Amino acid sequence: MTSILAAEIVAYGTCLFLAPFFVKAYFDPMSRLSISSIGLVPSESNRVTGLSNIRGTVGGLRLAIIAMIAIGTYYGRPDLSLGAAILVGSIAAGRFLSLGLDGWNWLSFVTASGELVIVASLLHIGGFI
Predict the structure, then answer these.
(1) CA 93 to CA 118: how far, in whole Å?
(2) Nearest-CA neighbor of 38 among 62, 8, 60, 56?
(3) Is 80 a residue whose pLDDT tops 80?
(4) How many CA atoms, within 13 angstroms, populate the side-chain half-sphere of residue 38?
(5) Could you give the angle at the alpha carbon of 43 between the alpha carbons of 110 and 116, nearest 5°?
(6) Of 113, 90, 105, 114, which is closest to residue 18 (Cα–Cα)?
(7) Which pTM was predicted?
(8) 67 to each of 36, 46, 99, how far by Cα in Å?
(9) Which contacts of 113-120 are long-range, i.e. CB under 8 A and separated by 24 or more positions?
(10) How many Cβ atoms sit within 10 Å of the Cβ of residue 127?
(11) Burial of 79 by CB count in 10 Å (0-12 exposed, 13-18 middle, 19+ buried)?
(12) How far is residue 54's CA from residue 115's CA, in Å, rounded to a whole number?
C-alpha cells in the first residue's frame, strides 16, 4: 500500500466517521451522538447556553472541513487539503492547549492525537510533506 493511498484512506475515513456526529449537532446539540460524546461539554453542566453557537461552530465548521477533505482528496486539490489541514490543526492545537490549562483528559488527548494524524495525511495528499 502506498503512502498516498493510506493518506486517502485516513481522509475518507475521517469524513465517513465524523459526518453523522456533526450533522446531528445541527438538530440536537446536546444529544449523546454529538457534543457530549466527543468531550465538548463539561460533564458537570446540565444546561449550556448559546446552543446556536454550538450548532454553528461545531456543526458548520466541521461539516465544512469534511467537505474540504472530501473534495480536496477526490479532485486532488492541494489548496483544499491545506485549508482543511490548517483548520484541523488549529482545533488540535486548542485541545493540547486545553490539556495544559484545564488539566489532563484522555479523551481530549486521544482526539487531538488523531487530529494530528489527519493533518499529516492531508498535508501528504496535498503534496506538502
Answers:
(1) 13
(2) 62
(3) yes
(4) 20
(5) 20
(6) 114
(7) 0.64
(8) 23, 32, 28
(9) 115/88, 115/89, 115/91, 116/89, 116/92, 117/10, 118/10, 118/11, 118/14, 118/69, 118/85, 118/88, 119/85, 119/88, 119/89, 119/92, 120/7
(10) 11
(11) exposed
(12) 20
Residue with cell 488527548: 109
Cell of 62: 466541521
Q: Which of 22, 16, 4, 23 is nearest to 81 (CA)?
A: 4
pLDDT at 9 over 70: yes
pLDDT at 4 > cutoff 80: no
Q: What does the alpha-carbon distance between residue 92 and residue 113 come to, in Å, rounded to a whole number?
A: 7
Q: How many residues does the chain have?
A: 129
